[in-house]
User: Fold this.
Amino acid sequence: MDMVSQLVSQRPNFFANRAADQEKAIAITDFIYMSPGLSNAYMVLTSAGRVVINTGMGFESPVHKKVFDAVCPGPTPYILLTQGHVDHVGGVGLFREPQTKLVAQRNLGICQEDDRRIKAVRQAQSSIWFKSALTRAAQGETEARPEFVQDVPVADIVFDDHHRLEVGETSFELYSTPGGETIDSCVVWLPRHRILFSGNVFGPLFPHFPNFNTIRGDKYRWAEPYLASLQRVRALAPEMLITGHFAPIVGANLIKACLDRLEAAVDFVHRETLNGMNSGKDIWTLMREVRLPPELHVGEGYGKVSWAVRTFWEEYMGWFKAEDTSELYPTQPRDVYPDLVELAGVDAVVERGRRKLTEGNPEAALLLAEAALAADRDHRESLKLARDTHQVLLDRSGAVNFWETGWLRHRIDRLDAALKVARGGTG
Assistant:
């Protein structure tokens, strides 16, 4: 097994992510400390005080601050943000002191405004994947508390491409790296130590295929800015990569090999998608056919190749697939499912779905189950078909991808609950 594949197999998956509850900060070096959480917070010690890099969710920040204060209570001349997502910025208000300057890439405000515009739907949808972590905190399993104010900070210092700070004897360089998780993404580089805080520019799992779209809801991210940011990071030649989640990655050769592999993998999928489009293949065919060759293996625990294919297709072509005129209008196939099921009979539809499932085609079985449930959402056999199909899809996936697994488990729970009250009885 090559070193990149070995790292993929050894690093935790995103299901290992937990809200902050530690008793002590973890020393990465003699001057850098980590406080793990839903997103890690970091503290860099200098002769002029401490520099905090990311602050976690608002409800986690008391834990981060307590463990950092036990090592160095301040002063805190700077807080640096690697991106504007809530799990990185929520605790800024707790860490801010009268003299503290918050530094972020200029697009921080744009990201926050995007979040505000879709706040209701974003919170509702995100809870499918993150409710358990918030529940643990609410029940007192951690010192973190969800009622703590979630900050929406305004930066004191913003930059476009590059910003340099000298804090005591330590140099900090911030580089804009859009294209990954956010348009305000940046990395923090300690040139004298060859240490890079990468945040989530490569996603929260490294080295995994990036999430060019996320099913929890967000704007699309594009391949070319991602590749440009990756190349920028690689040119720095870091010897330690401190990521947004989990433990640092050490070794210049290993880090370079990972970055090389990620670049080649994304470039391959991007090119294969465009080539397929130009040869007349539809989006669904390409989602099935485009696969990474073994030599370009990276993890798919957060992003998936098939989802990236769809994103790339729509990046260039938009939402209209040029397959059916009905795409142009709001009435969609599910709106006439009840008519089709009525013609065929719901039992016949379920029977055909069972056959598809037995034949090893759970995607087709799922469509038939959805059609049957559109006609009668309380039909017991339809619910059982849908439940069994989701379980087959989960088993087939290996529960590797965080988003896919979370959604399938969510739907199984919903279907189990519906079965308990459907037409009399359990089972």
About this structure: The chain has a mean pLDDT of 93. Residues 325-421 form a domain with the Serine Threonine Protein Phosphatase 5, Tetratricopeptide repeat fold (CATH 1.25.40.880).
